[in-house]
TrEMBL record:
Superkingdom, natural source: Bacteria
Protein's name in the database: ABC transporter ATP-binding protein
InterPro entries: AAA+_ATPase (IPR003593), ABC_transporter-like_ATP-bd (IPR003439), ABC_transporter-like_CS (IPR017871), ABC_transpr_LolD-like (IPR015854), P-loop_NTPase (IPR027417)
Cellular component per GO, a single term: plasma membrane
Pfam families: ABC_tran
Length: 212
């Protein structure tokens, strides 16, 4: 199996008083990783480094074997849009667009033509196909969550990153979101990283990195 993500000697700091040294890790196709740790320990920071939304102070981030250090901002944006699917806590949808338009916007950002079939297939498997023409602001929290997952998968990313995807969900929806994410990633052979405090996910994903 190919390495999707490799982190080596990664250091990051927000100014002089907040420095982080992260453990090395390798994540292959189809693998899942849960990142745990106390509040403020740097979980989201690590996720943002993996997403190339932050640049490390030193160390290497290799995505599908490619060192991301030398990339220009434009190249980084392009690779992120194509290779990384991000499920944010706050979804950052475009409020004036409907569900389908929000999904196909992911194609636009990666310079691809609108993949309506993909949007419809994903929506069907996530059971939001009846909502495609609905304005995004009319959706419930759980429905938006599923649109967020579908959007993250629109470009068949090799790496899916999810920040607290089950926070504030009841047990039934927590399990549903877990299955949607893991099954969708399995279909794509994507590697999946979830940052969470959610105790319920601990028993579901045995591969865990506890930051301390
Ligand atoms: N842009 C920033 N500038 C300065 N400090 C920051 C910035 N973003 C985060 N921090 C600090 O860095 C530390 C790590 O933040 P991070 O969000 O990665 O933690 P976390 O482990 O995800 O926390 P939580 O579980 O509470 O979400 C925190 O102390 C936070 O206040």
């Amino acid at each position: 199996m190919e390495d999707v993500l490799r982190l080596e000697n990664l250091k990051f700091s927000y100014g002089v008083h907040k420095t982080f040294t992260f453990p090395d890790l390798i994540l292959k196709q189809n693998e899942q990783l849960l990142i745990l740790g106390n509040s403020g320990i740097g979980k989201s920071t690590l996720l943002h480094l993996m997403a190339m939304l932050l640049r490390p102070e030193s160390g290497k981030i290799l995505l599908n074997g490619k060192d991301t250090a030398g990339l220009t901002q434009k190249e980084t944006g392009h690779i992120r849009a194509q290779e990384v699917g991000i499920v944010f806590q706050q979804h950052h949808f475009v409020k004036s667009l409907n569900v389908l338009e929000n999904l196909t916007l992911a194609n636009y950002f990666s310079n691809q033509s609108q993949n309506l079939k993909k949007a419809k297939d994903l929506s069907r498997s996530l059971e939001i196909d009846h909502l495609l023409k609905q304005p995004i602001y009319e959706l419930s929290g759980g429905e938006k969550q599923r649109v967020g997952i579908a959007r993250a998968l629109m470009n068949d990313p090799s790496l899916v990153l999810a920040d607290e995807p089950t926070a504030s969900l009841d047990d039934k929806n927590c399990e549903a979101v877990y299955h949607l994410l893991t099954e969708s990633c399995k279909r794509n052979k994507s590697a999946l990283v979830i940052v969470t405090h959610d105790q319920r996910l601990k028993s579901l994903i045995p591969n865990q990195l506890i930051l301390s």
